[in-house]
Amino acid sequence: MSEPDDNGIVLTEEQKRRRRARSIAIAISLGVLVVLFYWVTLVKGPAVLQRPL
Amino acid sequence: MSLVSEGADIARPLRPALSRAEPSLAGVEDYIALLKPRVMSLVVFTALVGLLVAPGHVHPVIGFTAILCIAIGAGASGALNMWYDADIDAIMSRTAKRPIPAGRIEPGEALAFGTTLSFGSVAVFGVLVNWFAAALLAFTIFFYVVIYTMWLKRSTPQNIVIGGAAGAFPPVVGWAAVTGNISLEPVLMFLIIFLWTPPHFWALGLLKSDDYARAGVPMLPVVAGADETRKQILIYSVILAPVGVSPWAFGFTGYTYGVVALVCSAIMLHLAWRVFRDREGAAAVSAPRRLFAFSLLYVFVLFAALLADHALARFGFGL
Q: Are residues B39 and B171 both part of a single domain?
């Protein structure tokens, strides 16, 4: 009996490149969402900005 | 219903199977393709016009947020459409290279992507813009995915007539993002796109009827034949022409829009007449192709004229 391969799934260089691209796209999307909420909060003020600190 | 199962049974063996354990091969460009960017461009443009011609003021950041949410919502419904239609997409030459039938994206990935973006776009729209417009966007996504894609597309030759409502909602959503309600003007914008959809898609259907027949999609040319489709194209174009001019006739726009709408509607009618008349030889192919190409231009030009007319009136140059 051959020994089980415990290396798991080994990604090819192409698969790694595509995963990296997907991760960057998700990070950019989340960054845009954060900026959007921050920006709209400023625009929708002034109640948000005038609260007691 | 039989058409549904027939299409599915034919398609299933053609879809390349990926092992569940295999890492995803999808690139960012495949996810962008799921959003149907070309369809999205028309949605974004008509929604933007609806938003800009609406009475009242909207802060540019809120306006940008509204258009972004409408674009993402439209893209999400495109992704869900591709998820559900992967079986028939694999059969049709026009759609066989889409990410799911080509095996680059798993159906489950597309479903998760489309669902997440649908709920996300509606939620962000509601929180940051207004909930009335967000509800309209949610209804538009529901109409396109459930009413058109899952029900009408495979069950009736009137699929794109009723389903066309989904594509006609964006200017109404844009308008509602500013005003929080609906009046006659956005309804006229809705009707222009709604009545434009049948001649536009049936012209394509005349050219690609073999594709649709092979996939079991009951497009009008497949079910009722080319001659009946030509007649229906002409009828809808005759109804579309006065509706296209109606924003001017009702006094919502000036002569700028009126003249553009009259000229474009006359050309649309002429091309529809040629589709009806030319039934044999090369002209039988070139006439629907010309109508399809011009119909794309028609809706863009009319909405651009609506915007230009509104801008001229706002800056005191209205005719």
A: yes
- Whether residue B124 and residue A36 make contact (CB cut-off 8 A), yes or no, is yes
B309 in a domain, yes or no?
Answer: yes
3-state secondary structure chain B: CHHHHHHHHHHHHHCCCCCCCCCCCCCHHHHHHHCCHHHHHHHHHHHHHHHHHCCCCCCHHHHHHHHHHHHHHHHHHHHHHHHHCHHHHCCCCCCCCCCCCCCCCCHHHHHHHHHHHHHHHHHHHHHHCCHHHHHHHHHHHHHHHHHHHHHHCCCCCCHHHHHHHHHHCHHHHHHHHHHCCCCHHHHHHHHHHHHHHHHHHHHHHHHCHHHHHHHCCCCHHHHCCHHHHHHHHHHHHHHHHHHHHHHHHCCCCCHHHHHHHHHHHHHHHHHHHHHHHCCCCCHHHHHHHHHHHHHHHHHHHHHHHHHHHHHHHHCCCCC
CA distance A2 to chain B (A): 21
Which residue range(s) make up the domain with B234? 183-319
Dump pLDDT digits (tens) for B80-130: 999 999 999 999 988 999 999 999 999 999 999 999 999 999 999 999 999
pTM: 0.86
Domain check: are B114 and B175 in the same one? yes
Residues B97 and B188 in one domain: no
Flag if A36 and B65 touch (Cβ within 8 Å): yes
Residue of B18, B28, B69, B72 for testing the chain A interface, max A β-carbons within 10 Å: B28
Q: Within an 8 Å CB–CB cutoff, is residue A28 touching chain B? A: no
